[in-house]
Amino acid sequence: MVILGLAPAAHGANRTGRYFTGDRSGDFLFAALHRTGFSDKPVSRTTEDGARLSGLWISAAVRCAPPQNKPTPAERDACLPYAVRELELLKARVVVCLGAFAWDAALRVYGIRPKPKFGHGAEARAGGATLLGCYHPSQQNTFTGVLTPEMLDASLLRARALISHG
What digits encode the pLDDT tens for the residues 97-112? Predict the structure, then answer.
């Protein structure tokens, strides 16, 4: 399974060197990864904290920390070949797309047209892969209840079920 986010956060991955590590979005995600058996620790603060993932890879559609967390179309397009190659090498069967930007990037990677609408719980098939839409664990979403721990857990458990049952 691959979790695909937007971009490395300026105060998270861009600082620590690991996606969703060292910021509040990462705290929310790692807690869910731990509850659903994908991480041996409920939090990841640094690359030296010993947190180990199991059965998943975390990546991002854009490879640099964009200003105001809003990649330009040029940044999006320049980074797409890296996501394409990464997903090819990983032979991902399930891609959990955190947010509409990641969903759109994954649809572009897999060449899915017409584009299915993004939403929490949305699913799209692409050859041997299934894309799952999930709201991003940003503070804007988690503090307002747009994304709850139960919702994120349900997405991760759906991904696990898809992996288990092909």
Answer: 999 999 999 999 999 9
Edge-to-edge strands of the sheet including 94-98?
57-60, 2-5, 94-98, 129-134, 123-126
Q: Looking at the whole model, is its pTM more than 0.85?
A: yes
Measured CA to CA, the distance from residue 70 to residue 68 in angstroms comes to 5
Domains and CATH numbers, the chain: 2-165 (3.40.470.10)
3-state SS assignment for residue 129: strand
| SS3 category, 19 | coil
